[in-house]
Design goal:
This protein is α+β, with helices and mostly antiparallel strands. The chain has helices at residues 30-37, 43-51, 125-133, 166-177, 266-273, 298-309, 339-349, and strands at 3-4, 15-20, 55-57, 60-61, 74-79, 96-99, 103-108, 147-148, 157-163, 182-190, 197-201, 204-206, 214-216, 230-239, 252-259, 315-323, 330-334.
């Protein structure tokens, strides 16, 4: 592994990150290796920084992102400070399920990033909320911004709640920490879990070699950074049983998941761990397609075409329930999956 210098804060000054290539990293492509080492920057952003002269190798500017790194090389990457790190409001359409003076619940579309970060300073849900809420934001920690206490991955759709003030933010944070939130997700997965109803109780930590990926940890003593994670699941519908190779199997299934904890990528990691990754998941699954689905009739051909175009994890946050952090009123919201998810389900039902 590479040796890193102490990170600087890019929001206050240009940040210099230093690395020395170890034997285990030799031969990796430079921009890919950096993206796995600096998880806050995307590979495309790193490639642009390299080509723009922000990287030095052994003291000299180096601009080839495709270079295969060699043991003993010293690199220094200068990450420019953003011109204005404070999120700005943007007129991005929102599908609002509920709103009052303290909180707002939105149905987030797939493809929308929740928080601004390196590579995504604009065009996020937070930017949209700042614009929409305007003067109703009294501030979180003295800053006029929404308090988002739980996240959805960029390509996961569904319900999410944000606070408009410190008091509501603290109340929601406490409820999530105490697991006093009802969260039900719908997922289309490869195959069908057995038994059809169960609980996956397996701690999660970052993968040791791919920092943007999470993994189940079997020995918590060896990974003190592992965090407990519990997912309750139930198979709601199965698809393609008559086409499966083994009697009783299914090509895919619709699974309802209730979260007891909310770890990064939890549902995606847990279902992949038991052998049933989400359809379309580019990180923990096979991406588009289903093994065993062959062309030859209208139903199969239609499903294959839809699967080819479904390039995200098939995951939707359908139900969100909690007590209002100020009034104490019991609230529960339900959102139908978006059209791409429903289209996927329709073609699978015909198999």
């Amino acid at each position: 592994m590479a040796n890193q210098g102490p990170p600087l804060k890019p929001e206050t000054a240009d940040a210099a990150r230093r690395f020395r290539i170890g034997a285990d990293d030799a031969g990796a492509r430079l921009d890919k290796w950096l993206s796995e080492t600096i998880e806050s920057l995307t590979r495309s952003r790193l490639k642009a920084l390299i080509e723009g002269g922000a990287l030095s190798r052994n003291g000299a500017v180096f601009t080839d992102p495709s270079w295969k790194v060699r043991e003993g090389e010293d690199y220094c990457l200068t990450i420019p400070a953003p011109a204005d790190p404070a999120p700005q409001g943007e007129a991005i359409p929102l599908d609002i399920a509920y709103e009052d003076g303290d909180i707002i619940v939105v149905d987030k579309p797939a493809g929308l990033v929740v928080h601004p970060a390196a590579g995504n300073w604009t065009g996020t849900l937070v930017n949209a909320l700042i614009h929409h809420c305007g003067d109703s934001l009294s501030g979180i920690g003295g800053v006029a911004r929404p308090g988002v206490v739980h996240r959805l991955d960029k390509d996961t759709s569904g319900l999410l709640v944000a606070a408009k003030n410190d008091r509501a933010h603290q109340g929601l944070t406490k409820a999530f920490s105490a697991h006093d939130i009802e969260r039900v997700y719908e997922a289309v997965v490869v195959g069908a879990p057995r038994p059809g109803v169960g609980t996956i109780d397996a701690p999660i930590a970052r993968a040791p070699t791919q920092r943007k990926k999470m993994t189940v940890v079997r020995d918590e003593d060896e990974r003190p950074d592992a965090r407990s994670a519990t997912t309750h699941y139930k198979v709601a519908e199965t698809f393609g049983r008559k086409r499966a190779k083994l009697s009783g199997d299914a090509l895919a299934s619709l699974v309802a998941c209730r979260l007891e904890t909310g770890r990064t990528h939890q549902i995606r990691v847990h279902l992949a761990y038991i052998g049933h990754p989400l359809v379309g998941d580019p990180v923990y699954g096979r991406g588009p397609g289903l093994a065993g689905l062959k062309p030859g009739d209208n139903a199969a051909d239609a499903a294959i075409q839809v699967l080819k175009k479904f390039r995200r994890q098939a995951l939707h946050a359908r139900v969100l329930g909690f007590d209002h952090p100020i009034s104490g009123q019991s609230l529960r919201f339900e959102a139908e999956p978006p059209e791409d998810f429903q289209r996927l389900r329709r073609v699978l039902e015909r198999l």
